Amino acid sequence: MLKFFFWLKYLCKWRVVLLSVAAVALSVSLLIVVASLFTGFIEAVQGGAVDVVGDVVLAAPAAIERYPDFIERLEETELVTAATGTLSAQGLLHAGKGNVHGVTVWGIEPDRRARVTHLKSTLLRQATAAQAPCFDVPGAAAETGGFVGIGIVADPDETTDEYDREAVLAEMIGQRVFVTTGTIVEAQNADGTPKRKLIPFTIADIVYAGVYEFDEGFVYVPIKVLQEALYPRREGDLATSISIKLASGVDPQQAVAQIRGLWRVFAGEELGWDAYRIAVTEVITARQMQAQYVVELRKQMGVLLLIFGVISFSVVVLVFCIFYMIVKLKQKDVAILKSCGVGGFSVAWIFLGFGTVVGLAGAGIGTVLGYVITRNINTVEEWIRIALGLKLWQSSVYMFSRIPNQVDWASALPIVALAVAAASLGALLPAILAAWTKPVQILRYE
Amino acid sequence: MYKLKLIIRYLLRRHLTHFAVLAVALCVFIVVVVMTVMTGLVQGFKEKNHEFVGDCVVGTESLVGFPYYEEFVERLEQTDLIAAASPVVKGYGLQDAEGRETPVEVMGVDPVRHSRATNFAQVLHYRASEPARAFQPAYAPEAPGCVRGIDLALGRNASSEYLYHAQPEQTPVNLTCFPLNARGALALAGTWPVRTQKFFHSDYARTGIAAVDGSLVYIPLEQAQLLCTAGTLKRVTAIHIKFQPGTDLARGCDRVTQLWQQFRQEKSDAPSAYLLETVKVESWKGYRRAFIAPMEKEQVLLSFMFVLVGGTTVFIVFVVFYMLIAHKRKDIGVLKSMGTSQVGIMALFSGFAFAVGLLGSVVGVSGGYLFLARINGIEDWLFERFGFQLWDRTIYAIGDIPHQVDVKVVFVIVGSAIAACLLGAAVPSYLAARLRPVETLHVGQV
Q1: Which of A234, B59, B233, B256 is the most buried (most CB within 10 A)?
Q2: CA angle at residue B402 from B398 to B403, to 5 degrees?
Q3: Distance from CA of B210 to the nearest CA of A (A)
């Protein structure tokens, strides 16, 4: 009870203690915001990959024949909800007057793909349609339709970094475009140079995934159309990769092992592939695909947290200074307590406990502040843009349209614990000095 | 004189002030190291961009380009301010080399003119001393050569070194483009709208800019015009300009703007004159703004975060001075009774705060300088011992970590540290100045 009395008295009388609370709060909030933003970005990178390619990807060194049969086998297992084949190629797109882009061309089955990924929600025209997405061009059913990323056909507003989606839809749907994948046709040009195969298609929808790489550089056409361009002499269904959605609750690593087993059997017995080709076929989770990049991001996060953590260590010094001052100025109080029979440990605990309380208070305020800033980071960024004309976050630089704003509690709790420990450490030496106070020397009348 | 003596005495005798010095030193050390590295990276990046484009660019964002460029280049070269001008065609193409297709950026240049206007010659590997032969493969001098961005052809090891061959590899490179007419439509529509040209790899270009080295292919200007443009009037997309040494950038760009406006006026009735409307004159900073601005913004953001965290130092100085003045009430009373004014007292403690800030800054800057001088050695040691590299050189296009301390940056940091100390000591100094001798020297007090 005595301790609480002193804590309250010192808190009310020594307003300078509030400085240490403020310093702890500032440091904790900054560290929480930095850790949460980085962790959120990493999660967005990994989550973005899952949204676009599914939970697991099987990528083969050569085109997979009869991939629908393999998909059927996958979907018969309890692991897999749905799977879809993809053909992939690099290409060059002409999307209108003066608009030429290097692109990645994906041949897909949009209805099946929508079951495996979040394709439907990224389509501007068909996102809210009742039926599954398709390549049908409105008012031109006979045309070969395709989807293009929004960044290919439009530029975002320089100030807001937002696209005018309505204008893009109005202008681009029904537009005829050409893509070449470099495949050579048999006939040569008149000057003897090779003739490249062209895939003309009509834009049926615009893709806006909120991930810069996909919005700026991807084009989607029917898988059969792309197969015709890439493998004109081959019959049957071909795919270069298979995207797989796992059933909920399935461990991705276990699923990868089982899918690899199924593939080994299918490729060996039904496709007649040799052991080498089967072995080099990658079966990998979407998250693992980003592993190398994520490692670098975590490294940068660690370095930044270390830097701010070292500077925040000065909180220990601040708490030490304040408590040293209190102990020195309150020596008589301490001496009276000790002369009344309060033990050295109890005296020390008054100050150590107070230091811990200061740490807890500061960490609590800092956590709330960090939470509020992180959750409203996009609003803060918008205010800065309006007030200073400075657009801090751009999708072309940071990959995503929105700043990730989830608080990472797994990082926040250790930060809070360290802040409390730092404050306690700062109060430790003054507490020991207080415990060593000799009443006879302090209270002696001179 | 007494102020100086008192300041030195307080610094040496009052051990608590050492904590303030330590806190300032720690903050200054961290900020010097981080800002030196950050500034070095940003400066290095800006310099590379400057060298890549020259001093000024007359160009259009449209891939269609503009005509009558030769006349304008002639006019530029007659101007005293202009050292060199290089017309350039930029477009997008599909590179087919080493068995795979890759979307690339195509830049058509006259190697001699471009070497005069930019650092083109310096970025070449085999033909750095003879840029006129940049497009002559050593193994087939008559064949049309192309210079490829180094990351298109070679990989980097963990030391950021490329594994060069003694001679350029005998690699045929097919480039496929969509030639555009003056309206931006496909020039060969109705026949075959894609053009392909075969080149032979003749050299590497290493600009040090990751986006360029990973996507740019240089070819002769005339070949680029054939591949990317079509029509009776030859067109280019930009003219890169180098000013005479000593020319002020703004003045030079203004002069070029005047010349361009005059030229456009004269050509207003010429065929395809509407293409001249889209042309802008920009300094290298404006032209590369989209690439440079994000790095500058990050630098500003990091500085702001350091300002926030550095607030702890202000608190520490405040507390230390508050304690010091609480202990030195009698000294202050004696000084004031001997005639020292309030201003004198404030000057004493402000001077002391200045000394703390200066001493802490000197220690911090010295420590930072020593650390930076060894930073690359430390990173090499960490990599050999623990496999840890701050930036993975196989991913990031960074050589050595920048470690040249910028005097201007140091002055700003030291100035800020001293200002923070003065700010922290302001209130305690004011309170000290307000002390009355009669209160502090009262018999009861003595």
Answers
A1: B256
A2: 155
A3: 14
Strand, helix or coil for residue A327? helix
Where helices occur in B219-288 by DSSP H, the ranges are 221-228, 249-266, 284-287
Helix (H) or strand (E) holding B302: helix B289-327
Cα of A257 to nearest chain B Cα, Å = 29
Q: Which of residues 158-177 of B touch A (CB under 8 A)?
A: 174, 176-177
**Nearest-by-Cβ selection for B315 from A23, A99, A307:** A23
Burial class (CB in 10 A: 0-12, 13-18, 19+), B412: middle
Q: How confident is the model at residue A211 (pLDDT cuts 50, 70, 90)?
A: confident
Kindly state whether A89 is in contact with chain B, defined as any CB-CB distance less than 8 angstroms: yes
Q: Is B93 on the interface with A (CB under 8 A)?
A: yes
- The residues that bridge with B124 in the sheet, in sequence order, are B205
Dihedral over alpha carbons B170, B174, B175, B181 (to 10 degrees): 130
Alpha-carbon B178 to chain mean position: 34
- In a 13 Å sphere around the CA of B82, the CA atoms on its Cβ side amount to 25
Q: What is the pLDDT of residue B255?
A: 96
| Closest by CA position to B428, among listed B17, B52, B4 | B17
Q: What is the mean pLDDT of residues A390-415?
A: 82
Geometric angle at alpha carbon B75, from B71 and B78, rounded to 5°: 140
Cβ A223 vs Cβ A85: under 8 Å: yes
**B322/A314 Cβ within 8 A:** no
Give the chain B residue nearest A303 (alpha carbons): B390
Window A:90-129, CB contacts with B under 8 Å: 90-92, 94, 96-103
Which of A179, A180, A189, A292 to mutate: most B Cβ within 10 Å? A180
State mean pLDDT over B148-171.
83
With a cut of 70, say whether residue B429 has pLDDT above it. Answer: yes
Give the C-alpha separation, B68 to B185, whole Å. Answer: 20
Nearest to A196 among B196, B315, B320 (CB): B196
Q: Is B274 on the interface with A (CB under 8 A)?
A: no
Q: Which of A73-87, A429-443, B250-264 has the lowest mean pLDDT?
A: A429-443
Residue B446 has pLDDT above 50, yes or no: no
Nearest CB to A102: which of B100, B103, B309?
Answer: B103
Q: Does the beta-carbon distance from A392 to B23 stay under 8 Å?
A: no
Q: Tens digits of per-residue pLDDT, B201-234?
A: 999 999 999 889 999 999 999 999 999 998 889 9
What are the sequence ranges of the domains in chain A? Answer: 2-44+297-443, 48-293
What tens digit of pLDDT does each residue of A368-397 get? 999 999 999 888 888 888 887 777 787 777
Is A247's Cβ below 8 Å from some Cβ in B?
Answer: no
Residues in A closer than 8 angstroms to B22, CB to CB, are: 317
Per the CB < 8 Å rule, is B192 touching A198? yes
pLDDT exceeds cutoff 70 at B444: no
Please give the angle made by the CA atoms of A23, A27 and A28, to the nearest 5 degrees: 115
Backbone torsions φ then ψ of A162, nearest 5 degrees: -110, 150
CB atoms within 10 A of CB B83: 18
Q: Is the per-residue pLDDT at A104 higher than 90?
A: yes
pTM: 0.84
Ranges of H-type helices in B100-204: 111-117, 120-123, 150-153
pLDDT at residue A65 tops 80: yes
Calculate ∠ Cα B219-B220-B225, nearest 5°: 95
Q: What pLDDT, on the 0 to 100 scale, is given for residue B89?
A: 97
Q: Is A198 on the interface with B (CB under 8 A)?
A: yes
The terminus-to-terminus CA distance of chain B in angstroms comes to 27
